[in-house]
Amino acid sequence: MSGVETVAGTKISISANPPATFDAAGYAAVAAWARIGEITDGGSHGRTYAVVTHQPIDNRGTQKFKGSFNEGQKTLQLAIDNKDPGQIVLTEALNEDEDYSFKVEYQGGDIDYFQAKVISFEKATAGVDSMRSATVQLELTTSKSGVGIVEVPAP
């Protein structure tokens, strides 16, 4: 087996509760996870570093270094379900300044945990042959100690 997998079966959940510690055990103990239903595109997420350049005049070459990092943003596409528990928490989070906890569970058992702010929940009505949908923008954050995305491999 090659170790690759499709995204079929991926589950994304949200909780208003922060972890006690920013590690696998802290996130595993978070209560009240609400699965976000009707997601059609889970977007992408991951750390990106700023590039710091240095150009010494004696050799004209540009040297590159890694600077600060940003955990990035994640865009979710979903069909609106006003009774879905996860979507209810998403809309509540939109009006809050606090970070919310997120859990992404992949088909093979890997889990990504992170904190994020819900920045937008934009509704769309495209056409007669489309679902009433929304685009949700998340801005991933980093703890004061520099922890961002916590990756937990499948057991």
Automatic annotation (TrEMBL):
InterPro entries: Phage_TTP_N. Residues 33-137 form the Lambda phage tail tube protein N-terminal domain. This is Lambda phage tail tube protein N-terminal domain-containing protein. It comes from Comamonas koreensis.
